[in-house]
From TrEMBL:
A UniProt-annotated Pfam family: Flavodoxin_2
Keywords, sorted A to Z: Oxidoreductase
Protein name: NAD(P)H dehydrogenase
Gene3D superfamilies: 3.40.50.360
A GO term, aspect molecular function: NAD(P)H dehydrogenase (quinone) activity
Sequence ranges assigned to domain Flavodoxin-like fold in this UniProt record: 2-171
GO cellular component: cytosol
Family from the record: Belongs to the NAD(P)H dehydrogenase (quinone) family.
Length: 191
């Protein structure tokens, strides 16, 4: 039994990403301990106005998010692609919580920081309004590079899989049902 955190990165209250996050959580909860976070429900200042030069007081929702990351053994990020990458609120959540001495730690004399979130795994579930092959191979797959390479790898979280669904914009209900079935299968295959 794993401790699984499912993050819906779409700030909209009603979206395909929310349906996918709910579906994943429901199926995974049959065999694992599951918690969910919907980015749209969180109340925090997205901008890290001083960068990492000084500490910005952390709102309660952000402190809770950090506790959930520490609790989790497996993190599922469900996100749409907006302007090539994640929505601003999800990026703001990462900026404000994946902080030095929480997610990574610089050591004097070393160019590569210590990864403080090792031992966790993740998976990405991504929705797009373009065909996935077009986004990945023509547009450069920025969401994968940002989340997997620049955030998860950097902090020690090993991404196990990335699954893409699209195009969403003109999708029919039947297609969305098939996609939700695939999300169920991803959750039921979690070991």
């Amino acid at each position: 039994m794993k401790k699984v955190l499912v993050i819906n990165g779409n700030p909209k209250s009603d979206s395909l990403c929310k349906s996918m996050a709910d579906q994943y959580a429901t199926v995974a909860a049959k065999h694992h301990k599951v918690e969910q976070i919907h980015v749209g429900d969180l109340d925090f200042q997205m901008n890290l106005s001083a960068g990492y030069d000084k500490n910005t007081e952390m709102e309660p929702d952000l402190a809770n998010f950090q506790k959930m990351i520490m609790w989790a053994e497996h993190v599922v990020i469900v996100s749409p692609v907006w302007w090539g990458t994640v929505p601003a609120k999800l990026k703001g959540l990462i900026d404000r919580t994946f902080l030095p001495n929480f997610a990574f730690k610089y050591t004097k004399g070393k160019a590569i920081p210590e990864k403080l979130l090792k031992g966790r795994t993740s998976e990405l579930i991504i929705t797009l309004d373009t065909p996935p092959f077009w986004y990945k191979f023509v547009k450069g797959n920025a969401v994968y590079k940002q989340l997997k390479k620049c955030t998860l790898d950097f902090t020690g979280i090993k991404n196990r899989t990335s699954t893409y669904f699209g195009p969403v914009i003109n999708s029919k209900p039947e297609s969305r049902e098939v996609w939700l079935g695939k999300v169920s299968k991803l959750a039921s295959n979690l070991k």
